[in-house]
Design goal:
5 helices; mainly beta; Porin; about 450 residues; 19 strands
């Protein structure tokens, strides 16, 4: 593999970060949408064509990674490293005379890892990795008012390299991968399927979609997934959704697997006239996934339930609406049994579903794992958001793996600053404190500390 030149792309990212700080809007979040400076065509009825551009730069440093045993565990010591990404693209939308819309998007990703081995060890064989490839490349059609009483854009059909997400990514959130020969393990930027056909329908409170995609996974397992889900939403009160999917794959335990998913959330006092005002911000959410491998060639005839997997989570949250800094407190419990296949989970917010900026990013999969999460989200000023998160991790079934199920505790502090319309900055700090299972499995017993500085420019 050719080694990248260390200067150009990090320099490009840093230059764009600096330039974005000097754009109109200064060092504060914008209070209204401004014209995109890269939009070169604006037509009637909302038609447009614009260049898109993203540049990301991240610095990562650790102390006692892998609880002080990274060299033995990964093959090389992991202390610090850099990642960068540049994503130029084109986004077009054309409204037809009958209000129908044709749209499309294409972009390319240049990603780099340099300066050391990342905490996952994805570049342990070649520390300096660069890669250039197409990520998004899809086209679609929206129905406008073609279906009259069913509502505007009732039907949306698209096909190509694109990302499919269900809910908050607990089951399906990303179909690609980053790191290894693709570089930029944490930044990612490679989240699309090899190809995906998606049919979305929405009318009033009901919405649904049908999907068929081929995953762009690291092991090239030729995994495809087909199915769909149905959702019903009562605005500000409740939502419920259910999905069913079938997989085919060169991986035996996935081939023929059927996946059932149900999820929902409720604000039980949101519209209750007689309820105390203090109870109205209370919300409950839950999700359950069952993987039925009964048709899989992996199933042992003497133990037909062997490869069936289950995962679920429940959470309760409360926003203190009249309190300064708008604090939101969330408690969540999640459980993934030993036979559960993590499939294509992804992230839509800090803590969903890479659980922990140390362990969830680099050490633990959502499999054979139980976790408690306590999260406090604050907004001291409009452009700045702070997340304080605590996790307790346990092995779901430690039999044959470790003599204890207590793995580790992790503490995260995350500060996000929306500098202006185009530039955002983040600082992430973390400490992972090993318990008996982590010490036994990794051979290390030191606290794993972590710091990330990250900047992103998007047009």
């Amino acid at each position: 593999m050719n080694h990248p030149v260390r200067t150009p792309f990090p320099a490009v990212c840093a230059s764009l970060l600096f330039a974005a700080m000097l754009l109109p809007g200064g060092l504060q979040a914008a209070d209204q949408e401004k014209p995109n400076p890269l939009q070169f065509y604006t037509g009637d009825n909302g038609s447009y064509a614009k260049v898109t551009l993203e540049a990301d730069l991240g610095f990562f440093t650790q102390g006692n990674s892998w609880f002080g045993n990274s060299e033995a565990y990964l093959g090389k010591k992991s202390d610090s490293w850099w990642e960068s990404l540049v994503r130029p693209g084109l986004d077009v939308s054309f409204t037809l005379p009958g209000t129908q819309t044709l749209y499309g998007q294409i972009d390319a990703v240049q990603a780099n890892t340099f300066g050391g081995v990342d905490a996952a060890g994805s570049n342990v064989d070649d520390e300096d990795v660069n890669d250039l490839r197409i990520d998004h490349a899809f086209a679609g059609w929206r129905s406008g008012n073609l279906f009259g009483s069913l509502g505007d854009d009732f039907l949306d059909v698209s096909f190509g390299r694109q990302r499919y997400v269900v809910g908050d990514g607990f089951l399906i959130g990303t179909e690609g991968y980053a790191g290894s020969n693709r570089a930029a393990y944490w930044i990612g930027g490679r989240d699309t399927a090899d190809y995906a056909g998606i049919v979305r329908m929405k009318s009033g409170a009901w919405s649904s979609d049908l999907v068929y995609f081929k995953a762009d996974d690291q092991d090239k397992t030729d995994t495809t997934l087909g199915g769909g889900n149905l959702n019903y939403t009562v605005e500000e009160v409740a939502n419920i959704g259910a999905g069913f999917y079938v997989l085919n794959s060169d991986t035996e335990n996935r081939d023929g697997m059927q996946v059932y998913n149900i999820r929902g959330g409720i604000n039980p006092f949101a519209l209750a006239g007689g309820a105390p005002a203090a109870l109205k911000p209370l919300r409950f959410d839950a999700e359950y996934v069952h993987e039925d491998a009964g048709n899989s060639s992996f199933v042992d005839a003497d133990n037909p339930d062997y490869a069936n997997g289950n995962a679920w989570n429940v959470s309760v949250s409360y926003q203190f609406e009249t309190t300064p800094w708008k604090p939101t407190l969330t408690y969540r419990y999640a459980s993934f049994d030993e036979n559960y296949d993590p499939l294509f989970y992804g992230s839509t917010d800090w803590g969903n579903w890479y659980q922990g900026e140390i362990l969830g990013e680099y050490a633990l999969l959502n499999q054979n794992l139980d976790s408690h999460m306590l999260k406090l989200k604050l907004q001291p000023i409009d452009p700045v958001t702070v997340n304080l998160i605590y996790y307790q991790f346990k092995i779901h079934d430690a039999q044959g793996i470790a003599t204890s199920d207590d793995y580790a505790d992790e503490y995260n502090l995350i500060v996000d600053w929306a500098v202006n319309d185009h530039l955002s900055l983040s600082v992430v700090g973390g400490i992972a404190d090993p318990n008996d299972a982590a010490v036994e499995l990794t051979g290390g017993d030191d606290n794993w500390t972590y710091l990330m500085l990250f900047g992103s420019v998007k047009f």
